[in-house]
Amino acid sequence: MNPLRERYGQEIDEILAKYPQEQKRSAVMPLLYVAQREHGYVTREHLGQIGELLSIAPTEVASIVGFYTLYHDTPGGKYRLQVCNDLPCALRGADKFLDGVCDHLGIKPGETTGDGVVTVEAVMCLAACDKAPMFQVQSREGISYHENQTVESTIALVDGWRKEEK
Amino acid sequence: MNEILLRHRDIKDIGQLSVYREHEGFDAFKRAVTGMQPDEVTEMVKASGLRGRGGAGFSTGMKWSFIDKNAWPHYVVVNADESEPGTFKDREIMESNPFQFLEGVMLCAYAVGAHTAYVYLRGEFWQLAAHLDARIAEMEKQGLLGDNLFGSEYSLRIYTHLGAGAYICGEETALLESLEGKLGQPRLRPPFPPSFGLYGKPTIVNNVETLANVPMIVQKGVDWFRGFGTEKSPGTKVFSLSGNVVKPGNYELPLGTTFRELIYTHGGGITDGRKIKAIMPAGASSSLIVADDKALDTPMDYESVPSVGAMLGSASIIVVDESVSMDWLINKTMHFFQHESCGKCTPCREGTYWMRHLTERIHHNQATWDDVILLQDVATNVKGKCLCALGDFSTEAVISSITRFRGDFEAKVGMPVNATAEAELKEVSN
Predict the structure, then answer these.
(1) ipTM of this predicted complex?
(2) pTM given for the model
(3) Which tens digits make up the pLDDT trace of B298-325?
(4) CB A125 to CB B183 under 8 A?
(5) Would an 8 Å CB–CB cutoff place A16 in contact with chain B?
(6) CATH class for domain B326-429?
(7) Which of A130, B27, B351, B359 is 20–30 Å from B72 (CA)?
């Protein structure tokens, strides 16, 4: 039996029920979210398993992973702290904020802290331009928004995660 | 004024189903489904003059009337991909006034004969999708969604679908491709979605804010709606105000309100008492308007904004103050567009990459005036040569800033070296 179906049978059925029976392929994005929950990224095995569920080739599933930025094909930190530094946020100090957070953690944007807890990334607009500096946190639990942030409030959040991990 | 879209700011808890119903919630849908022909709803929306709030400003009722009645089934797909830098209005509507939005989806679906509607949300709206799912489940429980609604023959189901981080999916045909489980790349048009949309079936794609207008148009009538805004741009609009202003945020105002009123009366003016330099009225996709008195006194509606050299678009007003240099600004916008180009059309895929490199060099003092000319030349050659608007959008800030804020570039790279360079800039600008 397909390992994903074995583990998340009911959830997968609910997803498939949203789309016409002959259009199962529409479920590829929601199924990738299900798979990504397992390890925080999509594995090679997942590609085949999702392909099997939807009757499409694993490479086609891989192309979706590659195209969309919220899917990852390599492990990152347990929490991905994604700072928007697009124009409207940058006008409100997002670049300085991003540098401040990175300096404090001793990493550069795109890198993961030594303890594997957090990866900091600069991302494109998150539709929260009036509440900059802001970031979203992507983890296995999903995505949450954190708005009107300071370097201090952000570091406090990261420290909290680190305590949980110990 | 929060007359239509941001009513939740005045009506406490309108995001709860019972409170929404106390405020005539679903009365419009009930009236439509029990007493109006689908076409009558379309005619009413057409007569209201409502124009698409996603950016294009096309007549909503007209779009609905294009639905192909010779092919079935029909679908309604809501564009909740809100990804334009500077835009954050749909998120507030769906978060705080969700039932009015969902009733708008229902009225649209009834009008065009669709029994399934999908709300395509950008992947980052993960929490919002869960919030909407809970509201939809509540409505199903109360018999507001499902079969034989209000005792009629009509049935409808609404599903949310999450994208996964791609600006291009805000383009309606790329959105449909994505919803079909493919790469989000635009289709060649025509055919347009009302004849060939989701799964090749007739489909109406509308923006969140557009649909949130519909319940009150049906409930209170065309004349009431036309009492707001201008003759050609009726109604109110949510203006997302961001950048160097004291009070950024969403403001619901009649179309035709001036930039000055939005920025100074509602937005509290420019941060730290600095002077305003430029306005981008349509987010990062916008041309830069020189913020002089003429521009500030221009009404923000679909007809007037072009007179100062830009488009109203989704009305995401980014305010830029005097401390900002345009070489920095276009380096930011090019970074965005290069990242978001889907790669399908060569002029956009290669052009955005090239322009980003040039803006990077100009910003980091590694360029000469020739590079500025080259940048303008590349931008001019990308424009008008791609399947969707992203290619064009990437050029607007570049071309307008070089022509309208030339001093910033002269200061950055040194004055034009000779008359030939001068003439060349003129030539590529034309």
Answers:
(1) 0.97
(2) 0.96
(3) 999 999 999 999 999 999 999 999 999 9
(4) no
(5) no
(6) mainly alpha
(7) B27
